[in-house]
Specification:
Blueprint: H1 7-18, E1 22-24, H2 25-35, H3 40-49, E2 53-56, E3 63-66, H4 79-87, E4 92-93, H5 95-101, E5 112-117, E6 121-126, E7 129-135, E8 144-149, E9 152-157, H6 159-168, H7 176-185, H8 191-201, H9 204-216, H10 218-221, H11 225-232, E10 240-241, E11 249-251, E12 256-258
Parallel strand pairs: 5-7, 10-12
Antiparallel strand pairs: 1-3, 2-3, 4-5, 6-7, 8-9, 11-12
Helix pairs in contact: 1-2, 5-6
């Protein structure tokens, strides 16, 4: 029969766990065998009872958060680590999360994280934040790059694609005010790249929204008139509202009803 390990061995295990913010069942099993050599089920039960671990309900993969002294139940110190451990690298950060990781968001902390995928999934709550998996109009092969975020290297949409995504669905970017805040902080974009992306989205109304934004920030982003002229041929011919539910004047070039205060950040 296996021994339950000495007190010193359990301290070594606890010390090894304290260097992490989360640990998977697989990694935990390796640590348990290395330090105390007991059955994983016994170790998990003991560590949870001791307040060292807290289970995150993730089904068959299994993931635990390592609780620091004084941390509140359900509080996860490193959301990116939890997300990476749960979803792997098949998905990528987009919409409002991409704005945040690019340093463009008006918010210093996120309560919702958005991942792009070719198939939507139900939202999941982890401690103090929620993860949404969104089916995006285009896939990971367009405008997704590696990005250093703290101790993590993650996949994220680049600036040009992030602009398009947020213009298309501002609700996934904490609302239009946050999108506008981000647009005002961008210094310059690649004319050819964003034009190419816009064509691949194949959403005429989005082309119009991009045209309105490019015209407004033409000087700040160094947008060539030739870029606008080329973009115009792909825009919608049926006028729609720039923001659903917000009336405005018809912009005849881009066939959109644009609120007068769209770029003032005070829509009502």
């Amino acid at each position: 029969m296996q021994q339950k390990g000495s007190r010193n061995n359990w301290k070594q295990l606890t010390r090894a766990l304290s260097e992490r913010t989360t640990v998977s069942t697989h990694d935990l099993q390796e640590l348990v065998q290395k330090h105390v050599g007991v059955q994983i089920t016994y170790a998990v039960r003991k560590l949870i009872q001791d307040g060292t671990l807290e289970k995150i309900a993730l089904g068959r993969r299994g993931l635990y958060t390592v609780k620091s002294s004084g941390s509140k139940p359900g509080f996860l110190r490193d959301p990116l680590e939890v997300i990476q451990s749960t979803y792997g690298e098949e998905m990528y950060y987009c919409y409002g999360t991409a704005l945040f990781l690019h340093g463009l968001s008006r918010y210093g902390r996120l309560s919702s994280y958005y991942l792009g995928n070719n198939k939507a999934r139900n939202k999941r709550t982890f401690g103090q934040f929620v993860v949404w998996v969104i089916k995006t109009p285009v896939g990971k092969e367009l405008g997704v790059k590696r990005h250093k975020a703290g101790n993590h290297t993650v996949f994220i949409t680049d600036i040009e694609r992030t602009i398009l995504d947020c213009l298309h669905k501002p609700k996934y970017a904490e609302g239009w005010e946050n999108v506008l805040h981000a647009l005002t902080k961008i210094k310059r974009i690649d004319n050819e790249r964003i034009l190419d992306y816009a064509k691949q989205y194949q959403i005429p109304s989005l082309v119009g929204k991009l045209g309105v934004a490019l015209e407004h920030f033409k000087k700040e982003w160094v947008i060539a008139e030739s870029t606008l002229a080329r973009l115009q041929q792909y825009c919608t011919h049926q006028p729609v509202q720039f923001l659903p539910g917000h009336k405005g004047r018809l912009n005849k070039r881009w066939h959109l009803y644009v609120p007068d205060d769209l770029f003032e950040g005070d829509l009502h």
